[in-house]
Specification:
347 residues; Dihydrodipicolinate Reductase, domain 2; alpha/beta; 2 domains; six-stranded mixed β-sheet; Rossmann fold; seven-stranded mixed β-sheet
């Protein structure tokens, strides 16, 4: 008999809808392979919620309705204008909060409030939103432990690239001594175009925006802030640190010149934007900066919008994983994986 888990999904933008599509498409596989039934109890968006406590919401039909111009709070017989996530979480009728609202790196809201309400009411959390965790990692994790709540956030640390899974599960029994990651597809795309085609920075950025790889405002990416936020989460989780974003020395790629690219090439190297964390006798060293990697470095061949992460360990040597979709579907797939692991494996 399948285990049924009832979900409250906060945020129904691209990632939230992609997750709903995956739950709809894979529901039979989830029951057959994992003995798991995921019931979408409620979806909350800006102006209200759709709630179906008995049968659960139909994920595919709800997504179609929204993508045809509808609003969550007006969905066929299930809509509740003005109903908030806090209202629903306080009712304690769900098992898991899935948080996909837009990331806010100023104060973490509204996700911070959602996190705390879920923890206080005993719901586990699956998050794509990195805001509260980047800003207040230790306090949130300690509160969750006190309440017996688990939090998983693979999608917040490079979408489908299994950064945390490899670091947490595949290196069990080993000590991670250093981490290096290409964690942002936009900057890697730009640097690859500059290196392989001699494309000017501005042209590569414009192409990335045209292809949907870069945002209209690419500041978070090209200034290294997105990479910084991800390496903060990864380092805090795997190295037991308590870093704040402002403690990480961060340099983006806007200052990388064609002359830098050429000099690296002549030296048999390639420039990549790396987020890195290393344990030293004087404490952790965590930074984000363009680095000239030798050709035999395991991340040197990670090109265009691909990402990768490499761990140096005391007993297993270097472990590297690359790839993973950088897309709403990739992020949704990471969240679905977290759901399965949380329920079936307890990890």
């Amino acid at each position: 008999m399948a285990i049924t888990k009832k979900i409250i999904l906060c945020g129904f933008g691209n990632v939230g809808r992609a997750l709903a599509r995956l739950i709809d498409a894979k529901q039979h596989d989830l029951e057959r392979q994992y003995g798991l039934a995921l019931k979408l109890l409620a979806v909350v968006d800006i102006d209200g919620a759709a709630v179906a406590e008995e049968m659960g919401l139909p994920p595919g039909r709800l997504t179609d309705f929204i993508e045809d111009g509808g609003a969550v709070e007006k969905f066929e017989g299930s809509g509740h204008p003005g109903l908030t996530a806090a209202d629903l979480l306080a009712q304690r009728k769900a098992d898991i909060l899935v948080e996909t609202t837009p990331t806010n790196l100023k104060d973490g809201e509204p996700a911070r409030t959602h996190f705390m309400a879920a923890i206080d009411n005993g719901l586990d959390i699956i998050a794509a939103n990195k805001g509260p965790l980047v800003l207040d990692y230790r306090r949130i994790l300690e509160r969750a432990r006190e309440k017996g709540v688990q939090i998983r956030f693979s999608a917040a640390t490079a979408a489908a690239l299994p950064t945390l899974d490899v670091g947490r599960l595949c290196t069990a029994g080993a000590r991670i001594e250093a981490i290096e990651g290409i964690l942002n597809g936009t900057t890697n795309y730009i640097l690859t175009r500059m290196a392989q085609e001699g494309c000017p920075y501005e042209d590569a950025l414009q192409d990335a925006q045209r292809l949907g790889i870069a945002e209209t405002d690419p500041t978070l990416d090209v200034e290294g802030l997105d990479t910084r936020n991800k390496i903060v989460l990864i380092a805090n989780t795997l190295l037991a640190l308590d870093l704040a974003p402002g403690e990480v020395e961060t340099t983006g790629i806007a200052g990388v010149t064609p002359a830098d690219i050429t000099a690296a090439h002549e030296a048999g190297k390639v420039i990549k934007l790396l987020g890195s964390a290393r344990l030293s006798e004087n404490g952790p060293v965590v930074k984000v900066a363009p680095e000239a990697l030798p050709a035999d470095h395991p991340l040197a061949g990670v090109n265009l919008s691909e990402k990768g992460i490499s761990y140096d360990t005391d007993t297993m040597g270097r472990i590297t994983v690359t790839g993973g979709h950088s897309s709403p579907t990739g992020a949704a797939a990471a969240m679905l994986k977290d759901l399965i692991h949380l329920v079936k494996l307890g990890v």
